[in-house]
C-alpha cells in the first residue's frame, strides 16, 4: 500500500504538466499576516489569479473558489530569506558544484548571480518544503571587496527563478574587507571610494543608463533585459583606473542610488564609518548586513534610516569585530526604530530562519535581554526582508494584491519542528518532494527481504 | 561576520592544533591512572582533575514538570538535592523540610545538558589562527596528543553553553583532520583558571577517530598517505597492528592511548558520515579487537540502524545539517527517529559553539520529523538524547546524565518546556552549586577575555 502511494506520488511529480495558479481559500486557520501583527485565529485567506485577495477574520469566500479547511493549521506568507546562496551550489565542499565565490575571477562588482541560479538545486527544493518562497541570492566578496550583484528569486518548481535580477550590489568593509583590500580597513575604504569615483566618472562619460534592471517587476524570468551596462561603448578612461570596464559600469547604478548596496559590517565603528559614506555619496541606498554590534549604535542606524539584515543569534566574540555581539542585538535595534530582517547567511541553512525568529521571542522572557513579540519576530523573516528586497507590499505579507505566496503549517511556524503541509508560490501549489524526502521514503523501514533498497523508489 | 554558506570548519578539518600525552582520571579524592598510562610519582594520574564542587544550598524544586533523562516524566514533581548530590526525585508528596524551596510551577526540570561533541577551548573564540588548537594536522595518526593540552579555559563559549544551553558537562574532542586525532577530555562546564579545574572527575578518556573525506583530503593533498578511503583503512589497520605489539616497556605516548582503547579503558568516538563506511569501521573494530562507542555526525546512520543496534554503537548527530560536503549529501531530518525506531542509540550533539546553546531545540526538531512520519517519541525520551544518552556514550552515566538519587546534582530549571523554542534555562546547578541564574545578573561567568570589553556581563 505504501509503495503504491509512493508510486503515484512520484509519477505525479515526473509527469505533471506546467503548474497553474489556482483560485483557493483557506478557512478556519490561524493566520499570521506578516506585517508585525499577532496571529489571528479562525481566519481566512483568499487567493485568486496568483494574488492574495483577502486575509483575516470576517472574510467571505467568493463563490466558486475551492475551499481548503485550515482547521488546526497556521497560514502565513512564504518566508523570505536574505541573504542566501540558494541556487548557487550543490555541495559546499565540492568546488566544481559551488558558484558562491569567484576568488579567481578578473571581475567582482560585475558578477551577476542571475545566470548562475539553478532552480533545480536540491537546496531550493529543500527550502521550498521548509516554507521559504522568496530569497535573495548572491555571490560573496572574494576577489575584491565587491561581491557582485544579487538576484531576488522565487523557489517555485519551474525554470524561471528570477524575480528581479541585479537587485543589489554587495561590498564588505569590515575585517574581511580590510583583508581583501590588501590588509587594512583603511585600504578597503580607499578602494571603495575610488571605485565609486570611477563609476561616477565612467557613467557620465559613457552615458550608461543607471538602472540596475528594468522593469522592476517581472512576472517570469524569460523577459529579462540584457544588462544595458554591458553594451559596447567607446569611452576612454583615465590611466589611473583600477576597476575593469565592466566592474566600473556595474557600480554606476550604485553610486546613483538606483541599485541597493548591501554593506557587510559587524563592528560598531565600522557601522558608523559606513553610515558616514552618505556624506560623500548621498545617493547611496544602503543596507547593513551582519551588524553584530549594531545595538551599540542603534540610534544612529535608525536616524540614517538604513535597514539591517542582522545575524540572528550571534552571541560570541567570533572575531575582534564582534566583541559586543549578543542575541539581544536585534531586539535592541528594533526597539530603537531600526528595520531589521534576520540574516539567513548566519545559520546552517536558511530553513532555520523560523527557529531563529522563535528564539528572539524567547528572549522577551529573559531578564535583561531584549527580544521581540511574536508578530515582530515573524516580520523579520517575512515582510521586512521582502521590503528590503524591493518587494514591499508584494511579498512577505498577506495583503490584497500581494503575491500568492502562501504556506500552510502543521503548527506555530516559529516553533521548532513545525513544517509546511502545503506551499503556494504565485498561487501555484508547489511539490514538496526532494532528495531528502525520497531518502526518507526509502528508509522508512530497513526491510530488504524481497529486494535491495535500490529497487525501492 | 556572517557565516555565509557556513561550512563547519571542524567537520571539514580545515584547522590545526597541538597537544601531548599522559593518562586518565578518576575521583577527586583518589585519582588513579588507567592501566595504559603510568601515574606520576605522587600516585596521581598526570594532569589530574582538580575540580571541586562549589558550595550549594539544600534545594527542593517543587511543582515543576520533571524529565529525569531516562524516559520518565513526573508532573507536579519534586527534585531534592544537597551536598552536591540528588537526594530524591518524586511527586508532590516528597517532604522538603530542611531544603530551600524553589517554586517550579509552569516550569520544567531536566538533568544538566551534556554535549558529547564540542571543540570549545580547543577552537575557542575569538576564532583567530593563534587559537586554532584542535587538529594536529601534521600526521594522519596522532594518538599521542591530548585535547586537554589545547583547551583554553577562558573560551567565552563555555559561558554561553551554560547560560543559553544549560550545558553542565561536555566532551572536547580533537578535530577530524586525522584518522586518529588524539585523546578527548570530558569537562564540567564550570569556569576555572585551569583545564585541570574543569576536568570531570572520574570520566574515562575518549579517543577521536575520523573516516572519510577529511583525512584523505588533508594528507592526499600533500602527496602522502592516505589519499583514498582504502588508504584510510590501510593506515588505521596497520596502526592497530602496531599497537597490539606494544609491550609497554618503553613509554610511547601514542601507543599508551591505543593500548587503552584495546583494553577498553578509552572510548572510541569516530567521526563518520556514510553508512557504508560506518559498516566497514565496525568490522575493522572487530578485526582489531576494539569497540566503537559512538559514531559522530553519522548523517547516514538511518540507513543502518539495525547494524548500529546489533553492534551497540551510538550515533551522535545533528538534527538537520546536510549538504556542506559530499559525504553529508544524504542527511535527512528523520535520522534520529529512524535510528530510534530501529532500536539504536541516539545522541544529539553540536560540534559547534552556537549549536551547543540549542541542543534541546535540535532534539525537538528531530522528534518532530519522526512525528510527521508516524514515529511518536515521548518528550521524556527525547530529553535523554541530550542528557542520559550522551552521558552513557561518554562513560559517565553512573555519575550524571539523569536525575536519580545519589547522582551528581547537575540540574537545569527551564522557564518552559525544554523542547520548545520559547524556553530558556532559568537556573543551572552543577554538583548542586548554582552556577547560572537568569534572575540574578551577577550569577553568570564572564571570561577574562571579555572583561572591559563592550558588552561585558551582558545577557548574551
Task: Provide a descriptive summary of the structure in words.
The complex is a heterodimer of chains A (457) and B (460). With 457 residues, chain A is α/β, with parallel strands linked by helices. Chain A has 2 domains: 2-75 and 431-455, Urease, subunit C, domain 1; 79-395, Alpha-Beta Barrel (TIM Barrel), CATH 3.20.20.140. In chain A, 26% of the residues lie in helices and 20% in strands. Chain A has helices spanning 2-15, 122-129, 175-180, 185-206, 245-255, 268-275, 277-280, 298-304, 329-335, 353-363, 374-379, 383-388, 435-442; strands spanning 24-31, 40-48, 51-56, 66-69, 74-77, 79-84, 132-137, 146-154, 162-172, 260-265, 286-290, 308-310, 340-342, 406-409, 420-425, 428-429. In chain A, a hairpin with an 8-residue loop joins strand 1 and strand 2 (40-48). In chain A, helix 4 packs across helix 5. Chain A is globular. Chain B has a domain at 9-23 and 112-398: TIM Barrel, CATH 3.20.20.140. Chain B has helices spanning 9-12, 156-165, 213-220, 229-244, 253-262, 275-288, 305-310, 335-341, 359-372, 379-383, 388-394, and strands spanning 59-67, 73-82, 85-90, 100-103, 108-111, 113-118, 167-172, 180-183, 185-188, 206-210, 267-272, 292-297, 314-317, 346-348, 411-414, 425-430, 433-437. In chain B, helix 4 packs across helix 5 and helix 8 crosses helix 9. Chains A and B meet through helix 2, helix 10 and helix 13 of A and helix 2 and helix 9 of B.
Q: What profile does the largest beta sheet of chain B have?
A: 8 strands, mixed
Going by CATH, the homologous superfamily of the largest domain in chain A would be Metal-dependent hydrolases
What does the average pLDDT of chain B come to?
A: 93
What is the string of SSEs of chain A from the N terminus onward? Answer: HEEEEEEHEEEHHHEHHEHEHEHHHEEEH
Secondary structure: number of strands of chain A: 16
Mean pLDDT value of chain A? 92
| CATH class placement of the domain at 9-23 and 112-398 in chain B | Alpha Beta
Summed up, the domain count of chain A is 2
- Secondary-structure content class of chain A: alpha/beta
Which shape of chain B, going by the Cα principal axes?
A: globular
- Return the CATH topology of the domain at 9-23 and 112-398 in chain B: TIM Barrel
Shape by Cα distribution of chain A: globular
Query: What is the third-level CATH name, the topology of the largest domain in chain A?
Result: TIM Barrel
Number of strands of chain B: 17
- In CATH, the architecture of the largest domain in chain A is Alpha-Beta Barrel
How much strand of chain A?
15-25%
CATH superfamily membership of the domain at 9-23 and 112-398 in chain B, which one? Metal-dependent hydrolases
Amino acid at each position: 500500500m505504501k509503495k503504491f502511494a509512493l508510486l503515484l506520488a512520484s509519477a505525479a511529480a515526473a509527469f505533471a504538466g506546467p503548474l497553474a495558479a489556482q483560485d483557493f481559500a483557506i478557512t478556519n486557520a490561524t493566520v499570521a499576516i506578516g506585517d508585525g501583527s499577532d496571529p489571528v485565529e479562525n481566519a481566512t485567506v483568499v487567493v485568486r489569479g496568483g494574488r492574495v485577495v483577502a486575509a483575516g477574520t470576517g472574510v467571505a469566500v467568493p463563490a466558486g473558489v475551492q475551499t481548503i479547511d485550515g482547521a488546526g493549521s497556521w497560514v502565513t506568507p512564504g518566508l523570505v530569506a536574505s541573504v542566501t546562496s540558494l541556487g548557487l551550489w550543490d555541495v559546499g565542499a565540492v568546488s566544481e558544484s559551488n558558484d558562491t565565490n569567484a576568488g579567481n575571477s578578473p571581475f567582482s562588482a560585475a558578477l551577476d548571480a542571475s545566470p548562475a541560479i539553478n532552480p533545480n538545486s536540491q537546496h531550493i527544493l529543500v527550502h521550498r518544503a521548509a516554507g521559504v518562497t522568496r530569497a535573495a541570492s548572491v555571490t560573496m566578496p572574494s576577489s575584491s571587496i565587491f561581491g557582485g550583484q544579487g538576484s531576488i528569486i522565487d523557489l517555485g518548481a519551474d525554470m524561471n527563478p528570477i524575480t528581479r535580477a541585479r537587485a543589489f550590489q554587495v561590498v564588505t568593509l569590515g575585517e574581511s574587507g580590510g583583508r581583501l583590500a590588501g590588509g587594512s580597513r583603511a585600504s578597503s575604504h580607499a578602494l571603495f571610494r575610488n571605485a565609486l569615483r570611477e563609476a561616477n566618472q565612467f557613467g557620465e562619460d559613457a552615458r550608461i543608463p543607471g538602472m540596475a534592471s528594468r522593469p522592476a517587476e517581472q512576472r517570469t524570468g524569460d523577459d529579462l533585459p540584457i544588462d544595458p551596462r554591458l553594451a559596447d561603448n567607446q569611452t576612454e578612461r583615465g590611466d589611473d583606473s583600477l576597476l575593469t570596464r565592466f566592474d566600473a559600469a556595474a557600480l554606476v547604478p550604485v553610486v546613483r542610488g538606483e541599485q541597493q548596496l548591501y554593506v557587510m559590517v559587524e563592528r560598531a565603528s565600522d557601522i558608523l564609518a559606513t553610515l558616514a559614506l552618505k556624506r560623500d555619496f548621498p545617493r547611496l541606498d544602503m543596507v547593513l548586513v551582519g551588524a553584530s554590534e549594531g545595538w551599540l549604535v542603534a540610534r544612529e542606524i535608525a536616524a540614517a534610516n538604513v535597514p539591517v539584515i542582522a545575524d540572528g543569534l550571534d552571541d560570541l566574540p567570533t572575531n575582534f569585530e564582534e566583541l559586543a555581539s549578543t542575541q539581544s542585538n536585534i531586539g535592541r535595534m528594533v526597539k530603537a526604530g531600526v528595520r531589521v530582517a534576520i540574516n539567513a547567511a548566519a545559520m546552517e541553512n536558511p530553513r532555520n530562519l523560523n527557529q531563529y525568529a522563535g528564539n528572539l521571542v524567547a528572549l522577551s522572557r529573559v531578564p535583561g535581554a531584549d527580544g521581540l513579540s511574536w508578530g515582530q519576530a515573524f516580520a523579520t523573516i517575512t515582510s521586512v526582508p521582502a521590503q528590503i528586497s524591493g518587494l514591499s507590499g508584494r511579498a512577505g505579507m498577506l495583503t490584497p494584491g500581494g503575491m500568492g505566496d502562501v504556506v500552510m503549517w502543521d503548527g506555530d511556524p516559529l516553533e521548532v519542528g513545525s513544517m509546511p503541509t502545503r506551499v503556494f508560490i504565485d498561487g501555484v501549489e508547489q511539490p514538496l518532494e526532494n532528495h531528502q524526502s525520497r531518502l526518507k521514503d526509502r528508509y522508512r523501514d530497513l526491510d530488504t527481504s524481497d529486494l535491495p533498497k535500490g529497487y525501492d523508489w | 561576520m556572517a557565516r555565509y554558506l557556513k561550512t563547519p570548519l571542524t567537520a571539514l578539518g580545515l584547522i590545526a592544533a597541538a597537544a601531548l600525552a599522559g593518562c586518565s582520571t578518576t575521583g577527586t579524592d583518589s585519582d588513579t591512572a588507567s592501566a595504559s598510562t603510568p601515574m606520576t610519582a605522587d600516585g596521581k594520574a598526570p594532569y589530574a582533575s582538580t575540580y571541586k564542587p562549589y558550595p550549594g544550598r539544600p534545594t527542593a524544586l517543587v511543582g515543576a514538570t520533571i524529565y529525569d533523562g531516562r524516559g520518565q516524566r513526573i508532573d507536579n514533581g519534586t527534585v531534592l538535592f544537597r551536598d552536591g548530590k540528588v537526594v530524591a526525585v518524586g511527586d508532590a508528596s516528597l517532604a522538603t523540610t530542611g531544603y530551600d524551596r524553589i517554586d517550579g510551577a509552569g516550569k520544567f526540570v531536566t538533568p544538566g545538558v551534556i554535549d558529547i561533541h564540542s571543540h570549545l577551548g580547543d577552537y575557542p573564540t575569538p576564532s583567530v589562527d593563534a587559537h586554532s588548537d584542535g587538529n594536529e594536522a601534521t600526521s594522519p595518526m596522532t594518538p599521542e596528543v591530548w585535547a586537554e593540552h589545547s583547551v583554553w579555559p577562558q573560551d567565552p563559549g563555555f559561558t554561553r553553553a551554560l547560560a543559553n544551553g544549560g550545558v553542565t558537562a561536555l566532551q572536547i574532542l580533537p578535530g577530524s583532520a586525522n584518522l586518529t586525532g588524539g585523546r578527548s577530555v570530558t569537562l564540567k562546564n564550570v569556569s576555572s583558571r585551569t583545564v585541570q579545574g574543569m576536568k570531570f572527575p572520574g570520566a574515562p578518556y575518549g579517543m577521536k577517530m575520523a573516516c572519510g573525506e577529511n583525512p584523505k583530503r588533508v594528507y592526499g593533498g600533500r602527496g602522502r598517505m592516505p589519499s583514498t578511503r582504502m588508504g584510510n583503512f590501510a593506515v588505521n589497520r596497520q596502526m592497530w597492528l602496531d599497537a597490539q605489539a606494544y609491550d609497554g616497556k618503553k613509554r610511547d605516548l601514542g601507543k599508551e592511548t591505543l593500548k587503552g582503547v584495546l583494553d577498553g579503558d578509552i572510548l572510541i568516538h569516530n567521526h563518520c558520515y556514510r553508512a557504508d563506511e560506518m559498516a566497514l569501521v565496525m568490522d575493522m573494530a572487530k578485526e582489531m579487537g576494539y569497540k566503537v562507542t559512538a559514531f559522530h555526525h553519522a548523517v547516514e546512520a538511518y540507513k543502518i540502524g539495525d547494524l548500529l543496534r546489533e553492534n551497540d554503537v551510538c550515533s551522535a548527530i545533528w538534527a538537520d545539517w546536510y549538504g556542506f560536503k559530499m559525504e553529508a549529501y544524504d542527511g535527512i531530518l528523520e535520522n534520529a527517529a529512524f535510528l530510534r525506531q530501529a532500536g539504536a542509540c541516539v545522541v544529539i550533539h553540536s560540534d559547534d559553539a552556537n549549536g551547543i546553546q540549542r541542543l534541546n531545540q535540535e532534539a525537538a526538531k528531530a522528534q518532530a520529523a519522526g512525528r510527521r512520519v508516524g514515529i511518536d517519541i515521548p518528550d521524556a525520551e527525547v530529553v535523554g538524547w541530550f542528557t542520559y544518552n550522551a552521558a552513557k556514550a561518554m562513560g559517565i552515566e553512573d555519575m550524571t546524565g539523569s536525575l536519580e538519587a545519589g547522582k551528581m546534582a547537575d540540574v537545569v530549571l527551564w522557564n518552559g518546556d525544554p523542547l520548545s523554542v520559547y524556553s530558556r534555562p532559568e537556573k543551572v546547578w552543577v554538583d548542586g552549586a548554582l552556577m547560572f541564574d537568569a534572575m540574578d545578573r551577577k550569577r553568570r561567568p564572564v571570561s577574562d577575555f571579555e572583561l572591559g570589553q563592550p558588552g561585558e556581563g551582558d545577557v548574551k
